[in-house]
Design brief:
The protein has 217 residues and is an alpha+beta fold. 36% of the residues lie in helices and 23% in strands. It has two domains: 36 residues; 172 residues, Roll (Pnp Oxidase, Chain A), CATH 2.30.110.10.
C-alpha cells in the first residue's frame, strides 16, 4: 500500500511539474527562434530568386539527395539530413557550404557520382505560414526550394577559410567535431534552382537571377 501511495504521489508531482514547465519550454523555444532569426520576413512570392536565396540563408539544415551506392540500393535515390550555411547571418553568399567527412554515406555516394540535390523548407525556420500557423509543409505558401548541382570538396586555402567561417559562425559545435574523422568543408556548385512558394506551378529560377539577388536587402 505504501508503495502504491508513493507511486501515485510521484506521478502527481511529475504531472504538476510538467504542467508548470511546459509553457516555459515553449517560451524558451520561441525566444531562441526570435534571437536566431530576428526577422524571418521573406520576399514576396513573385521575387523567386530572392526568396530562394533568403530561404537558403536562414536555413540551418536541409535534406541532401544522392544516387546510392549502399544497402543494395545502388543507382537508386537516397536522402539524408545535412547541416548547411551560406555565410554568417550578416552575409549571404548564396553558396551552400557543408562540413562533411569521407565516412558519411552521402559523401561516399558523391565520390561515385557528385550530382546531388539539396532541399530546404520554410517549415524548418519557423515561418508564420508554416510552423506559426501550423500549416502543412506541403502548402505552397510554405516555400520549398531544391538546389541541384555538384558536391565539391574545397581545397583552396582562402575558400576553405571563408567556408569554415560560414559554417562555424552558424554551427559553433562543429569546432569540436573529432579530428580523427577528418571533417572538411564542401560546397554545392549550383546548376538548378527549383522553387514553389505560391499556389500554381513550380518555377525554375535562372541562375543569373539567383546570383544577382540580395536576400539581405
Amino acid at each position: 500500500m505504501k508503495c502504491l501511495f508513493a507511486a501515485l504521489f510521484f506521478v502527481c508531482v511529475s504531472a504538476a511539474i510538467g504542467i508548470q514547465f511546459q509553457p516555459n519550454a515553449n517560451v524558451i523555444y520561441e525566444k531562441l527562434s526570435v534571437d536566431q532569426y530576428p526577422s524571418y520576413n521573406p520576399p514576396s512570392w513573385n521575387e523567386r530568386a530572392k526568396r530562394a536565396r533568403y530561404l537558403l540563408h536562414y536555413s540551418n539544415w536541409g535534406v541532401i539527395g544522392t544516387i546510392s551506392t549502399h544497402y543494395n540500393r545502388s543507382g537508386l535515390p537516397f536522402t539524408n539530413v545535412i547541416v548547411v550555411s551560406d555565410g554568417p547571418l550578416d552575409n549571404s553568399t548564396g553558396v551552400p557550404y557543408f562540413y562533411v567527412f569521407d565516412g558519411d554515406v552521402s559523401v561516399e555516394d558523391a565520390v561515385k557520382n557528385n550530382e546531388v540535390s539539396l532541399t530546404l523548407s520554410e517549415n524548418t525556420v519557423g515561418y508564420k505560414y508554416c510552423k506559426g500557423l501550423n500549416y502543412d509543409p506541403e502548402l505552397p505558401l510554405c516555400a520549398r526550394v531544391t538546389l541541384a548541382g555538384k558536391l565539391k570538396k574545397i581545397t583552396d586555402a582562402e575558400e576553405k577559410k571563408a567556408a569554415s567561417n560560414a559554417l562555424f559562425t552558424r554551427h559553433p559545435d562543429m569546432r569540436s567535431y573529432p579530428s580523427s574523422h577528418g571533417f572538411y568543408p564542401a560546397r554545392l556548385d549550383i546548376e538548378l534552382v527549383w522553387i514553389i512558394d505560391y499556389f500554381g506551378p513550380s518555377y525554375v529560377v535562372p541562375l543569373s537571377d539567383y546570383w544577382a539577388a540580395n536576400p539581405l536587402l
